[in-house]
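Progress note, sequence design subtask.
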């Protein structure tokens, strides 16, 4: 097949050049703010000439800038993510509700979406004086398999979809409590679906517990997860389940009312 239709495994409507451009954008990230042409070509698996044309196209569009031998994304690239956030209502209108919840529970909170094998933070609120084990930033990704958000977002899918996702990438072991068996994780997802929330204790980092509930739009579709985490010396997983989850559920309903 030619360059515009993609490999045989792709549909006839698949545009390879467009997909490669998106891959180039995703080559940048934490620890990779500025990359050379060779860096980008290696990260994406492209010929240098192809990578160069794609990078220069991003520069011409204002989505990237070139400084000598280095390329980096510009703030204009945020327009791509904001198009999705605003289309489902996950924009600045939700920030007050998120901040109010952080103040009530005394912990940091965030809204996340699924980008398997990761979850991405789309907005967050910090409780005064609260530090976290993982420095969470808007758009930063974390493993779906070991986070309460990931559990909740996977639970919104059918079992067949979940099984296919779990088979698509390895399940890393972060701690002794991490779930690394696809069958065991599918069972945990089913349990989360039945309960309507998730609380994980030390699966991503020892000494930290996380909690999450689904956020539904007015049509009842799960569009995000509302999450919080805490050091277990301050808030145990058991307390998160009994004390924090009810407040998070109420906040999720309030946020859902604001969604399109």
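Output:
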């Amino acid at each position: 097949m030619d360059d515009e239709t993609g490999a045989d495994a792709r549909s006839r409507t698949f545009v390879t050049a467009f997909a490669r451009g998106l891959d180039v954008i995703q080559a940048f990230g934490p620890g990779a703010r500025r990359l050379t042409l060779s860096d980008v070509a290696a990260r994406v698996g492209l010929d240098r000439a192809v990578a160069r044309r794609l990078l220069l196209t991003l520069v011409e569009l204002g989505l990237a800038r070139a400084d000598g031998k280095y390329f980096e994304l510009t703030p204009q690239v945020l327009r791509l993510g904001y198009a999705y956030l605003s289309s489902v209502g996950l924009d600045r209108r939700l920030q007050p509700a998120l901040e109010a919840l952080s103040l009530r529970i005394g912990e940091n909170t965030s809204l996340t979406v699924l980008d398997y094998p990761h979850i991405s933070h789309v907005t967050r609120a910090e409780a005064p004086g609260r530090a976290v084990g993982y420095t969470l930033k808007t758009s930063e990704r974390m493993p779906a398999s070991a986070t309460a958000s990931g559990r909740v977002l996977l639970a919104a899918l059918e079992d067949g979809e979940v099984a296919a996702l779990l088979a698509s990438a390895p399940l890393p072991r972060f701690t002794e409590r991490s779930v690394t068996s696809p069958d065991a994780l599918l069972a945990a997802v089913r349990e989360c679906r039945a309960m309507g929330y998730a609380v994980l204790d030390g699966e991503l980092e020892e000494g930290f517990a996380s909690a999450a509930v689904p956020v539904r739009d007015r049509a009842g579709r799960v569009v995000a997860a509302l999450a919080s985490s805490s050091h277990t010396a301050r808030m145990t997983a058991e307390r998160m389940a009994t004390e924090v989850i009810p407040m998070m559920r109420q906040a999720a309903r309030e946020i859902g009312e604001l969604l399109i």
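Confidence is low (pLDDT under 50) at residues 1-7, 132-139. Work on this subtask will continue into the next period as scheduled.
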